[in-house]
């Protein structure tokens, strides 16, 4: 038996899906707690809220030491992500006037969903997945995987389906929000690929790698092949589909 609940959080639909014999129409407290946790993350990290701690920090109106400890945690992880991707993922993005804006959104969503899903998994004995705008943390404890669609270069196109039992899957591209992903080296919108989907044990790192590969553009697949424990599907602007070696045997291409 399967049930799902959806709320609008962080400017996107967030859905929680449970599967198991004990599923009912009413959301368990573990589900409502996940939504509450993600709303708190949005309160701290939303770049669209001028009163969020990350906005105030970026404007110099708040010191890091006066922020919630989660802000320091995210910024430390952001430093790790910058180093691990040779600078292709960065939370300091150049503006046209030569200044930089602080925007950790590319890490926060995957980090927050992975963190909330892990807590959900401790309180729900069946299968589950948490989906925030296409970034998914999931777990299937039986022999029935979750089947996750892989998005192409447009919002209404699937290039395949991936059966997954555990971990995270994230997609980066311009299908939903136009040219919102920019190159950290020059601030120009990334536009060389249709989409990049990365799957692996950590949703946060899958999200980071997908973003870094997408803004990197040409050479993304070869670079992703070097990331141990993670596999990827890269869709070109012409609709061509390439997969890393480890995923070719399991992806069901449409």
How does this model look, in words?
- With 254 residues, the protein is of the alpha+beta class.
- The chain has helices at 29-45, 53-58, 69-84, 105-123, 203-216, 220-224, and strands at residues 2-9, 12-19, 92-94, 100-102, 127-132, 135-139, 146-151, 158-164, 166-173, 193-200, 231-236, 241-243, 252-253.
- The chain has an eight-stranded antiparallel β-sheet with strand order 1-2-5-6-9-10-11-12.
- The chain is globular, with a radius of gyration of 18 Å.
- The mean pLDDT is 90.
Write a concise keyword list for the protein shown above.
alpha+beta, 6 helices, eight-stranded antiparallel sheet
SSE layout:
Blueprint (H helix, E strand, L loop, with lengths): L1 E8 L2 E8 L9 H17 L7 H6 L10 H16 L7 E3 L5 E3 L2 H19 L3 E6 L2 E5 L6 E6 L6 E7 L1 E8 L19 E8 L2 H14 L3 H5 L6 E6 L4 E3 L8 E2 L1
Antiparallel strand pairs: 1-2, 2-5, 3-4, 5-6, 6-9, 7-8, 8-13, 9-10, 10-11, 11-12
């Amino acid at each position: 038996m399967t049930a799902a609940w959806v709320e609008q959080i962080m400017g996107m639909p967030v859905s929680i899906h449970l599967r198991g014999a004990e599923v009912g129409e009413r959301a368990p407290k573990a589900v409502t707690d996940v939504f509450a946790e993600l709303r708190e993350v949005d309160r701290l990290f939303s770049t669209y809220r001028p009163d969020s701690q990350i906005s105030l920090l970026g404007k110099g109106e708040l010191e890091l030491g006066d922020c919630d400890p989660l802000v320091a945690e995210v910024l430390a992880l952001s430093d790790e992500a910058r180093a691990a991707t040779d600078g292709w993922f960065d939370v300091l993005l150049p503006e046209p006037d030569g200044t930089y804006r602080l925007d950790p959104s590319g890490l926060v969503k995957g980090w927050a969903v992975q963190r909330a899903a892990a807590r959900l998994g401790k309180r729900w004995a069946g299968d589950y997945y948490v989906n925030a705008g296409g970034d998914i943390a999931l777990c299937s404890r039986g022999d029935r995987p979750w089947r996750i669609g892989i998005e192409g270069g447009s919002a209404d196109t699937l290039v395949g389906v991936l059966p997954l039992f555990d971990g995270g899957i994230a997609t980066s591209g311009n299908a939903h929000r136009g040219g919102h992903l920019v190159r950290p080296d020059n601030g120009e919108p990334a536009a060389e690929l249709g989409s990049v989907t990365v799957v692996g044990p950590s949703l946060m790192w899958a999200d980071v790698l997908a973003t870094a590969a997408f803004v990197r553009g040409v050479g993304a697949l070869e670079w992703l092949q070097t990331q141990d424990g993670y596999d990827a599907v890269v869709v070109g602007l012409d609709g061509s589909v390439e997969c890393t070696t480890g995923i070719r045997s399991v992806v069901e291409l449409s």
